[in-house]
Every structure is written in structure tokens, then in C-alpha cells.
Write a structure and sequence with these properties.
There is one protein chain. It is built from twelve helices and three strands; from the N terminus they run H-H-E-H-H-E-E-H-H-H-H-H-H-H-H. The chain has 240 residues and is mainly α. The protein has two domains: 90 residues, Orthogonal Bundle (Arc Repressor Mutant, subunit A); 142 residues, GntR ligand-binding domain-like (Four Helix Bundle (Hemerythrin (Met), subunit A), Up-down Bundle). It has a three-stranded antiparallel sheet with strand order 1-3-2. Strand 2 and strand 3 form a beta hairpin. Helix 2 crosses helix 4. The longest helix has 21 residues. The relative contact order is 0.12.
Length: 240
Amino acid sequence: MPAREANMSRTAATLESRNAETTDPAAVVSVDDIVAAVEEDIVLGRLHPKERLVEEAMMERFDGKRHMVRQALFQLESIGLVERIKNRGAFVKSYPPEEVEHLYAMREILELAAVEALPLPAPPEWLAELEDIHRRYSEAVDAHDLRQVFRLNIAFHRTLFRAAGNPFLYETINEFAQKAHGIRFIAIADKDSLAQARREHQTMIDAIRDQDRERLARLCREHLLPSKNRYLSLYQHTFE
């Protein structure tokens, strides 16, 4: 069997084997559902950088038409999680080191701008919402429920930065965070990284409660580093 066909067969078999681990195919009925399921697979490390996404396997997995799968791949490409290569197909995006540095530089700029605009002292209802999300996130970490960890991590940061009161800044922060999902898969599956993230979330809440904007800015900057550094290390040993 040619190498290309063998790779397609392995990828198709891998996707099929993941059906039981991911979203129930019968429940996935829209393009957005397919996008969300594949995005989750990438973040949780079920799909890896440079892994091919075979349309036929996805059609079978999601019980969808080809045009739905292609639209989902187009959306995944537009948000930076998938790249389509002419005459080869769609692949999970692999960010080279230079792009990772640029992406995370933008994330730092955007998030620090949001920190400067956060209301301190914190409104009690905002602080209570952050604490509730962090409590549920902590429970998910203890249970090693990675799907909930992923969702609640997004909820924590969106709740944090939404309070800046700038909808355009908030939307752009979310856009760049989503682009980084294909980079964060190593950290989210690592118990030590999850424990570190949990501690950092708590220290962010403490800084907000203490009205210490400078400390919060430093914590947000440092919070970006582990997933970036782990990805760059993996890239150096795997893709170069």
C-alpha cells in the first residue's frame, strides 16, 4: 500500500476509534457541532499537529453530508486550527516556532490591555462568578475530567476579560485564544500543568480581591508561558 494511502487509512481508523470518546455522533447535526467537536479533539490531544482530517471518516463519524464537513473544515481553517493544502487535504495546523512567538506576543498585548481596563475594586457579582467557575474548574482537575477542564478554563478567562467592558477587545482576545488551542494540547493533558494552572487562577482571583492590578498583569503574562514553552519544546524534538 502506498505511504499516502496507508496514512489515510490510519487516520480514518483513528478517527473511528475516537467516536466512543468524543461527542455522540447522533447528537452532532450542524456544522457548528462538528467544529466544536474537532476543536475539542485538538485541544485534548486526540488529534495532533499535522494529522490528516479525512472527509469520508468525518462524514461517517458525524453522520453528515460532505458539504457540512467541508464547511466545518473551512471554519476550522479560518480560526487557525486546521490548514488545507492543495491536492493533499486538511490537516491539524502545526504552528512553527516563529508563528507561536508572534501569536503569544499578541495574546500578551491584548490580555494586558484588558487587565488595565478591569474594574477594581471588583464588583461583588463578578468576583463571585469567577470564584464559582474556579471551584468547578478545580473539581474537574481533581476528577481529571479534561472536557470540563477545557470548557471551564475558557469560561474563567472569558469571565475575567469580559469585565474590561470593551466588546471589541474581548472578541479579539477570544479569537487569539482560540487560535492557540492547537498549541495548548500538551499542557491540558498534563497533571502538573493543570495543577499549576489551577494555582494561577486562584492567585489571579486573590490579586483582584486585593485590588493589585500590577500583580494581576504579571500573573496573566506568566500564565501564558507554560503551554507555549511546552509546545516549542515538543516541536523542536518532533517536527524539526
